[in-house]
Write a structure and sequence with these properties.
Layout lengths: L3 E2 L3 H11 L5 H19 L5 E7 L4 E7 L3 E7 L6 H7 L4 E2 L1 E6 L6 E7 L8 E5 L2 E2 L3 H12 L4 E9 L1 H10 L4 E7 L2 E2 L5 E2 L5 H6 L3
Parallel strand pairs: 1-11, 4-5, 4-6, 4-8, 8-10, 9-10, 10-11
Antiparallel strand pairs: 2-3, 6-7, 12-13
Helix pairs in contact: 1-2, 2-3
């Protein structure tokens, strides 16, 4: 699977809300959480389980637990807006953090902060970034995970374009990419068209 674009009526409805330039910070933040939760609900159909034995108040019963730890890796700062939607569904997730800025000389992402849980190499990891535009930040996050010997890597973005998708898959074809929408292109300022503007600014009310 090179990448997957979901086609769910609720997702389409909620995307219309956050694309609207008149959507306020509170609503934008809440809908991003809801969209992320919907994505993870769909993706979780493929999670591996192990069988366990439990005791109910009545009798011994067969149950199931997830076989791997799940680690979410939000790219600061916009990726933080996607974390709560996953935590609401899977409270046991562990959270890494990766902070980056664009180097003004090279125009490449430069990591200024990276913190990962122990034993992340054995975990199922989800990189979170609402907008997959040029793909540079996500690619740098994948590089960091690969340095930690992580093999099970997925990228969750609300919107993506071919440029970012291809940049990742050209280097890491084994990485799974999940999108709610695939948009047309990037403009001269590397904004996704039609997109939804700057996700970080809209999430945190900084513009």
């Amino acid at each position: 699977m090179p990448y997957q674009v979901f086609n769910h009526p609720l997702m389409k409805h909620k995307m219309t809300i956050i694309r609207d330039k008149n959507c306020g910070t509170k609503m934008f933040r809440e809908v991003i959480e809801e969209l992320t939760a919907l994505m993870v609900y769909e993706i979780s159909r493929d999670l591996e389980l192990v069988e366990v034995e439990i005791e109910t108040p009545i009798a011994i019963a067969k149950g199931y637990q997830m076989s791997k730890d799940i680690v979410i890796v939000p790219i600061l700062r916009a990726g933080l807006g996607m974390t709560q939607g996953i935590q609401n569904l899977i409270p046991s997730v562990k959270i890494a953090h990766v902070g980056m800025f664009r180097n003004p000389d090279t125009l490449l992402p430069q990591v200024y902060y990276a913190k990962f849980p122990n034993h992340i190499a054995r975990a199922k990891t989800f990189i979170l970034d609402p907008l997959l535009a040029t793909g540079g930040s996500v690619l740098a996050a994948i590089d960091l995970l690969k340095e930690k010997n992580v093999e099970d890597i997925s990228v969750l973005s609300i919107i993506g374009v071919d440029q970012g998708i291809n940049k990742i898959l050209d280097k890491y074809p084994e990485v799974n990419i999940y999108l709610i929408c695939k948009d047309e292109q990037l403009n001269d300022h590397a904004y996704i068209v039609p997109g939804l503007g700057d996700a970080g600014d809209r999430l945190f009310g900084t513009k």
